[in-house]
């Protein structure tokens, strides 16, 4: 079972994902986020994946698509909280997340959106 929430933090949308998402859940999240970015004129989207044990190829593609749609609506997307095991699995599968920024924590993600993040 999964749960997602979208919270507005001034001009940034914070999305938290708890539990594994089905493909249908991922597609619904993409539609909800795109609508919310357009409605709120958000300049950034933070997607907290710290509650995920697995990111499969479909979810990775969906995250990429969310970033693409958000960029077309003038919002930058940053994935935060990726666990080391998830990052290793993505690399082993040859999956990359082009168009997505990454940060270790929500605070780091906000810093990145504000242009004050440390560049690694």
From TrEMBL:
What's the domain of life for this entry?
Answer: Bacteria
The STAS domain extends over: 2-113
What Pfam family does this protein match (any one)?
STAS
Cite the Gene3D superfamilies for this sequence: STAS domain
InterPro entries for this protein? Bact_StressResp_Reg (IPR051932), STAS_dom (IPR002645), STAS_dom_sf (IPR036513)
PANTHER family to which the protein is assigned, alphabetical: RSBT ANTAGONIST PROTEIN RSBS, RSBT ANTAGONIST PROTEIN RSBS-RELATED
**Name of this chain's protein:** UDP-glucose 6-dehydrogenase
Organism expressing this protein natively: Prauserella flavalba
